[in-house]
C-alpha cells in the first residue's frame, strides 16, 4: 500500500484534501501532519512513498538519505523549498500547483496597494483608540493617473495589471517573456529594463519568480533609482526584497510605504501567534522593526487564502498524485514526466 504523508496541514486544508484522497483509485495510507518538514522532523517522512509539502517546509540535500519517497507533491506554485537537483539525481518526481485562483492573489495585491495609498492601517489604529480626527498623516493619493510597475506577467501578474487598469492607472511591466498581444489588448506597456520600472513607478508590485537573477531585486541600489515616496507591494516571493535595504529606505522616507504578504525569513516568524504565546519573543528583529512602522503592512502569506484557492490546491495536488501513481505503475523505472513538474 502506498503511504502518503501531508506536512503542514491545517484543518481547513484537510477539509478539502480528505474527500479527494478517498477517491484515489490506488489503495493508500494517509497521514495529515501539522508539523512542517525540515531536518529536525525528517524522521516523520522516513517511511513515506509520497510526501506533500507547503511553502514553509524545507527539503535540503542532507535530508534525502533519510527519505525513501519517490514523489514530492508541492501544494504551491513555488518550489524553491525543494532541492530539485537532488530530486533529479534520485529520480524523485516533483509536481506543483502552477495556478490556484490567481484572482485571490491579484485582488489581495491591489487591495494592499489601496491600503498604502490611503494610509488605512494608521486610520484604523487611530479609530480603535477613538481618535476620529483628520490629520495630515492620513493624507493619501488617488490611484487614477499614477504609474504602477509590475514585475512578472504570469497569470497573477496579468490580472494585477488588468485590475490596475480599471483604476485608470498607467501600467508598465517587466518580464523576460513578453506577451505583446495581451499587453496591446490591455494597454500595458512592457519596458526593457528593471531600472525603467524603478524610475517611473509610483507603486511597484512584485509577482516574479525567485530566481538567482531576481534574488533581492529590490535592494539599496534599486531603491536609489526609485521615485521619492514609492510604494512597494510584495505578494510574490520573500527573497525578492532585501529586508535591510527596505528598512533603510523607509527610514529615509525614500519609500513611502510597503506591504509584504511574503518575507525572506518568514520561516522564522510566520505561522506563529507571537501575541498569545507565553513569553514568546519574535526571533526576527528586522520583522519586528517593520511591524512598528505605521506605513508598513505585513500579512501572514494569506494572499492566496480563499475558499476557491484551497479547493483548487487540493484538486490539483491530488490530481498530480493520481497521475504519478498511474504512470509509476506503467513505468516503474520512473522515466516519465509529470504534467505539473516544476518549470525551471
Care to describe what's here?
The chain is α/β, with parallel strands linked by helices. It has twelve helices and twelve strands. Helix 1 crosses helix 12 and helix 3 (102-117) packs across helix 5 (155-166). 37% of the residues are buried.
Features:
alpha/beta; seven-stranded parallel sheet; five-stranded parallel sheet; globular
Which sheet architecture does the biggest sheet show? Answer: 7 strands, parallel
Work out the radius of gyration.
Answer: 22 Å
Provide the succession of SSEs: EHEEEHEHHEHEHEHEHEHEHHEH
Q: How many angstroms does the end-to-end distance come to?
A: 32 Å
Itemize the secondary structure elements and their pairings.
Layout: E1 2-6, H1 11-21, E2 28-32, E3 50-53, E4 71-74, H2 84-89, E5 93-95, H3 102-117, H4 120-128, E6 147-151, H5 155-166, E7 170-174, H6 180-186, E8 188-190, H7 194-200, E9 203-206, H8 220-224, E10 230-234, H9 243-251, E11 255-260, H10 266-269, H11 285-292, E12 296-298, H12 307-330
Parallel strand pairs: 1-2, 1-3, 3-4, 4-5, 6-7, 6-9, 7-8, 9-10, 10-11, 11-12
Précis, in short:
With 344 residues, this protein is of the alpha/beta class.
Amino acid at each position: 500500500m502506498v503511504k502518503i504523508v501531508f506536512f503542514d496541514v491545517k484543518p481547513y486544508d484537510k477539509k478539502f484534501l480528505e474527500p479527494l484522497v478517498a477517491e484515489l483509485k490506488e489503495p493508500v495510507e494517509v497521514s495529515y501532519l501539522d508539523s512542517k518538514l525540515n531536518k529536525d522532523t525528517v524522521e516523520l517522512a522516513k517511511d513515506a512513498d509520497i510526501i506533500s509539502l507547503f511553502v514553509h517546509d524545507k527539503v535540503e540535500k542532507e535530508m534525502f538519505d533519510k527519505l525513501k519517497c519517490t514523489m514530492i507533491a508541492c501544494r504551491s506554485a513555488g518550489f524553491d523549498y525543494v532541492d530539485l537537483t537532488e530530486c533529479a539525481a534520485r529520480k524523485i518526481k516533483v509536481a506543483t500547483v502552477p495556478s490556484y485562483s490567481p484572482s485571490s492573489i491579484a485582488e489581495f495585491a491591489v487591495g494592499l496597494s489601496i491600503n498604502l495609498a490611503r494610509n488605512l492601517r494608521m486610520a484604523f489604529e487611530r479609530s480603535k483608540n477613538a481618535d476620529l480626527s483628520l490629520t495630515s498623516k492620513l493624507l493619501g493619493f488617488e490611484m487614477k493617473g499614477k504609474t504602477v510597475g509590475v514585475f512578472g506577467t504570469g497569470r497573477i501578474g496579468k490580472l494585477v495589471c488588468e485590475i490596475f487598469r480599471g483604476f485608470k492607472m498607467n501600467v508598465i511591466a517587466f518580464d523576460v517573456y513578453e506577451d505583446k498581444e495581451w499587453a496591446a489588448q490591455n494597454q500595458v506597456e512592457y519596458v526593457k529594463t528593471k531600472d525603467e520600472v524603478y524610475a517611473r513607478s509610483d507603486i511597484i508590485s512584485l509577482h516574479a519568480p525567485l530566481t538567482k537573477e531576481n534574488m533581492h531585486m529590490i535592494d539599496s541600489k534599486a531603491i536609489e533609482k526609485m521615485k521619492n515616496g514609492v510604494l512597494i507591494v510584495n505578494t510574490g516571493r520573500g527573497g525578492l526584497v532585501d529586508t535591510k535595504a527596505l528598512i533603510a529606505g523607509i527610514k529615509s522616507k525614500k519609500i513611502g510605504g510597503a506591504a509584504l504578504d511574503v518575507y525572506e525569513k518568514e520561516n522564522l516568524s510566520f505561522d506563529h501567534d507571537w501575541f498569545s504565546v507565553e513569553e514568546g519573543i519574535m526571533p526576527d528583529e528586522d520583522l519586528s522593526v517593520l511591524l512598528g512602522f505605521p506605513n508598513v503592512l505585513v500579512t501572514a502569506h494569506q494572499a492566496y487564502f480563499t475558499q476557491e484557492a484551497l479547493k483548487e490546491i487540493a484538486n490539483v495536488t491530488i490530481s498530480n498524485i493520481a497521475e504519478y501513481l498511474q504512470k509509476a505503475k506503467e513505468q516503474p523505472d520512473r522515466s516519465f514526466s509529470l504534467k505539473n513538474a516544476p518549470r525551471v
